[in-house]
Amino acid sequence: DFGGAATLVTLPDGSERLVAGQKSGHLWALDPDDGTVIWQHRIGEGGALGGNHWGIAVDGKKVLMPISDPNGANRSDDVIRSGIYAFDLASGDADWEYRARPDCDNGRNERVASCAQRYGFSAMPLVIDGALVAGNIDGRLFVFDTDNGGILYEFDTSDFFETVNAIEARGGSIDAHSIAAGAGMIFVGSGYERFSQQAGNVLLAFRVKP
């Protein structure tokens, strides 16, 4: 199924693309007038917990697709396609990719449930000012340069935090519709306990440094 909404984009030449990510791992670009497939790719393996979960992002030139294919038993990391993939909107040509891999060092294996199996990008991503903000289901928050995929910022939300309302809180998996921006800040909800992921109850606010 399609877990996220399709996006209608007008290209510089005036043509349009209707782009959508699917839980099968497919990315589709259609002519919105008649539904003709202009280009398509299958990036992820897909499945009930695989492929593209909550949607894609566009920056006017590229479409950026998160993939979250879980690593089941008896599989090696090199076959897992979880990550972020960028494609040219007009042609469908691959631009760059970032392959996600588990990070269970420095005590993260104790703080993050199923750390070695669940490390894909599931949450709806956000494009803002030439950057892609994307959350990993292992609790890591990434900011990528949309031009080349370089990591501009990374933060581990799977930890305990002091809160403004003095409620005990910890971060966990970043999933679903948990990333938003406004007033020069980025807001991230961390914690999603379904599907053997890490529970949490914290809302984190990030301010861009001048």
Give a description of the structure.
This protein is mostly beta strands and 210 residues long. It is built from one helix and 17 strands. Strands 1-2-3-4 form a four-stranded antiparallel sheet, with no helix packed on it. Strands 5-6-7-8 form a four-stranded antiparallel sheet, with no helix packed on it. A four-stranded antiparallel sheet has the order 9-10-11-12, with no helix packed on it. The longest helix has 4 residues. The termini are far apart. 40% of the residues are buried. The mean pLDDT is 94.
SSE class:
mainly beta
**Order of SSEs, N→C?**
EEEEEEEEHEEEEEEEEE
Mean residue pLDDT = 94
Number of helices: 1
Largest sheet: 4 strands, antiparallel
Shape: globular
Structural Rg: 17 Å
As a percent range, the share of helical residues equals under 10%
Number of strands: 17
Enumerate the strands of the largest sheet in spatial order, edge to edge or round the barrel: 1-2-3-4
Topology of helices and strands:
Layout: E1 7-10, E2 16-21, E3 26-30, E4 37-42, E5 57-58, E6 62-67, E7 83-88, E8 94-99, H1 108-111, E9 126-128, E10 131-135, E11 140-145, E12 151-156, E13 160-161, E14 169-170, E15 179-182, E16 185-190, E17 202-207
Antiparallel strand pairs: 1-2, 2-3, 3-4, 5-6, 6-7, 7-8, 9-10, 10-11, 11-12, 13-14, 15-16, 16-17
